[in-house]
Write a structure and sequence with these properties.
heterodimer; A: 130 residues; 3 helices; globular; B: 434 Repressor (Amino-terminal Domain); two-stranded antiparallel ribbon
Chain lengths: 130, 189
């Protein structure tokens, strides 16, 4: 074991809700198991090795936001987030099909949340424990 | 995610079935990518060795994109010149394997790289040539090497379910000790 860990943390809304936990709760059982396995392995991968196809660091038109990428139940799953303070912060969970995100405003929302965190206006993030 | 959290989820039959599938659909691509990285090889190299097209290899390296069947995995194992263990195991063993898997350090030597220093392989050679029996020290090593090392202890320690899981992973030819679930502990209720 290399013992390496890239911490994954979650954005919280101003009401204190863990939106990533909400996203996870809506997944099917198979999607949950696949997300667990995928994120466990990404967490054990050095951040410098977060590369395609598992991770895309530059999204068109969005400075700083990247996406974790995997497929499950014939759907392309995405977790949008960014590296900040030694951890990767998950901002929005969504799916992706033919260049379109679902929910459609996922990218804009992720960008907004990232700005909140960078400007110190968001609640402290919480560890990804699902 | 800790093993305790996984074990909690495994108490649901639906999650158990999903967990087994995720070890194949998500776990295998991580194994393949780690093997390519540690050996310094490219997708094109693997495609040529396995007799597949590069886009198919790319798909196999993408978590969840394809569901590799056993024949595909056999061809990939042949390309890497390593073994492939496909067997039914208790969930404790599968969780132990999943929790100990590290994409940064996972490696499986090819046959030529493991033969000179592998006592298990020497034991197999001696046994096949009639130079030892299963009662000899070499025979003990042989028993370990060919699979009798799968202890029932993890099952007794866990006792989560009678239903076996299915584990598939690439291993050195003639060696699969790492897949034991000896450190598995059921969390306190």
């Amino acid at each position: 074991m290399s013992g390496w860990e890239t911490p994954i943390r979650c954005y919280r809304s101003r009401a204190g809700n863990n939106l990533i936990a909400d996203w996870y709760a809506d997944l099917s059982v198979q999607e949950k198991a696949d997300a667990d396995e995928f994120l466990k392995n990404m967490r054990r991968t050095k951040s410098v090795d977060w590369k395609t196809p598992n991770y895309r660091s530059r999204l068109r038109g969005l400075e700083g936001v990247g996406e974790l990428r995997w497929q499950s139940e014939k759907k392309q799953h995405r977790l949008l987030g960014f590296f900040h303070a030694g951890a990767w912060i998950a901002l929005v969970g969504c799916t992706h099909k033919q260049q379109i995100y679902n929910p459609a405003e996922a990218l804009d929302t992720a960008h907004k949340y990232m700005k909140e965190i960078k400007n110190g206006k968001a609640l402290p993030t919480v560890e990804y424990v699902l | 995610m800790s093993s305790n959290q996984i074990v909690d989820k495994l108490h649901t039959p639906e999650y158990r079935a999903a967990f087994v599938a995720s070890q194949i659909n998500i776990g295998i691509p991580f194994q393949l990518r780690a093997l390519l990285k540690t050996r310094g090889k490219t997708q094109e190299w693997l495609a040529e060795r396995a007799g597949m097209r590069q886009p198919r290899i790319s798909g196999l390296l993408s978590p969840g994109k394809t569901r590799p069947n056993i024949e595909t995995l056999r061809r990939l194992a042949e390309a890497f010149d390593c073994g492939l263990a496909v067997r039914f195991v208790p969930f404790s063993e599968l969780v132990s394997w999943s929790e100990s898997f590290d994409p940064e350090s996972f490696t499986v030597p090819g046959f030529d790289d493991e033969v000179p220093q592998n006592e298990d392989m020497k034991a197999i050679a001696d046994y096949v040539q009639g130079n030892s029996s299963l009662a000899s020290p070499q025979g003990t090593a042989l028993q370990n090497a060919i699979g009798s090392g799968v202890s029932t202890a993890p099952m007794k320690a866990c006792q989560m379910t009678d239903a076996p899981a299915l584990g598939i992973h690439l291993v050195p030819r003639g060696k699969r000790k790492h897949a034991r679930g000896r450190n598995f502990k059921r969390p306190a209720a």
